[in-house]
């Protein structure tokens, strides 16, 4: 039995995670962490599942009193960073579903997880299909090295480009030499019309109501194009990946960035 605390239980992802944990025989939901409520049960809090589970405002108090095995954090980039560090300090294995971590953050947190001999997971995307898209993109880039990425998310997402797009570009760069793309003399009449640039690849971010999480990776070659696309149509699409991350973090030492490490 894996005991779990969830941070961010009122969000769209958090509500789905609560349901998933409650429905898994090998998981036990010990508590939730929410910045609005403290000292009550979930069934007394507006916007939460009607469960007799305690709600904490301070994550350190939650860790001290509940002593969970795993933290699932589905909050926001800044809060996620704080919660990850606090989890490691208290011997809790974090599964973080927020993005916005820098390379320096990941390096520092990796060292801390190794020092504590704990597993930790930061997942830019929990959808298994999105992970397969990343891995297939890496494969395709060996043979078609002109590539652009278009990612689309809801208009409440704080960071751009998405962690998924960044991770995809980083995985492609492992097999692709840095190179300029487009006409060598191209100009932008409007700044950033060609999107962000990463080692010559262009990354475009769309933010619109009605979107959930979508990504296209488009490869161009002589006389042909290849388009790989993944669409998450609702938040339940992320739950198999959350479940996988919780299971794997219990078997892992050190920080793993991206679920691709767990999928052959």
Strand % is 25-35%
Q: Which CATH class of the largest domain applies here?
A: Alpha Beta
Secondary structure tally: strands: 13
Q: Strand order, biggest sheet?
A: 3-4-2-1-5-6-7-13
Helical amount among residues, as a percent range? Answer: 25-40%
Architecture per CATH nomenclature, i.e. the level-2 architecture of the largest domain: 3-Layer(aba) Sandwich
Number of helices: 7
GO biological process, one term: diaminopimelate biosynthetic process
Keywords: Amino-acid biosynthesis, Cytoplasm, Diaminopimelate biosynthesis, Lysine biosynthesis, NAD, NADP, Oxidoreductase
Family: Belongs to the DapB family.
Subunit structure: Homotetramer.
SSE topology sketch:
Layout: E1 2-7, H1 12-23, E2 27-33, E3 40-41, E4 54-56, H2 59-66, E5 70-73, H3 77-89, E6 93-96, H4 103-116, E7 119-122, H5 128-141, E8 146-153, H6 163-173, E9 196-198, E10 201-207, E11 213-221, E12 224-232, H7 239-249, E13 254-257
Parallel strand pairs: 1-2, 1-5, 2-4, 5-6, 6-7, 7-13, 8-10
Antiparallel strand pairs: 3-4, 8-11, 9-10, 11-12
Describe this structure in words.
- This protein has 264 residues and is of the alpha/beta class.
- The protein has two domains: 2-122 and 236-262, NAD(P)-binding Rossmann-like Domain (Rossmann fold), CATH 3.40.50; 128-232, Dihydrodipicolinate Reductase, domain 2 (2-Layer Sandwich).
- The chain contains seven helices and 13 strands.
- The strands form two sheets. The chain has an eight-stranded mixed β-sheet, sandwiched between helices.
- Strand 1, helix 1 and strand 2 (27-33) form a beta-alpha-beta unit.
- Residues 129-262 form the Dihydrodipicolinate reductase C-terminal domain.
């Amino acid at each position: 039995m894996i005991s779990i605390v969830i941070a961010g239980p009122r969000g769209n992802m958090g509500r789905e995670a609560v349901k998933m944990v409650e429905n898994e025989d090998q998981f036990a939901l010990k508590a939730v962490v929410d910045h609005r409520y403290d000292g009550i049960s979930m069934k007394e809090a507006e916007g939460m599942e009607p469960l007799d589970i305690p709600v904490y405002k301070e994550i350190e108090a939650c860790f001290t009193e509940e002593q969970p095995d795993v933290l699932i954090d589905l909050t926001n980039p800044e809060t996620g960073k704080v919660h990850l560090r606090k989890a490691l300090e208290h011997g809790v294995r974090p599964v973080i579903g927020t993005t916005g971590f820098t390379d320096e953050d990941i390096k520092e947190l990796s060292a801390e997880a190794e020092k504590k001999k704990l597993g930790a997971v930061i997942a830019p995307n929990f959808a298994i299909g999105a992970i397969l898209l990343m891995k297939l993109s890496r494969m395709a880039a060996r043979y078609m090295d002109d590539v652009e990425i278009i990612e689309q998310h809801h208009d409440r997402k704080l960071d751009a480009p998405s962690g998924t797009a960044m991770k995809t570009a980083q995985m492609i760069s492992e097999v692709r030499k840095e190179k300029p793309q487009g006409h060598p003399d191209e100009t932008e009449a409007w700044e950033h019309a060609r999107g962000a640039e990463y080692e010559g690849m262009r990354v475009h971010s769309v933010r619109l109501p009605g979107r959930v999480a979508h990504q296209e990776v488009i490869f161009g070659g002589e006389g042909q194009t290849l388009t790989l696309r993944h669409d998450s149509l609702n938040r339940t699409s992320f739950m198999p990946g959350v479940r996988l991350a919780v299971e794997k973090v219990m078997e892992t030492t050190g920080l793993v960035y991206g679920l691709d490490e767990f999928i052959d």
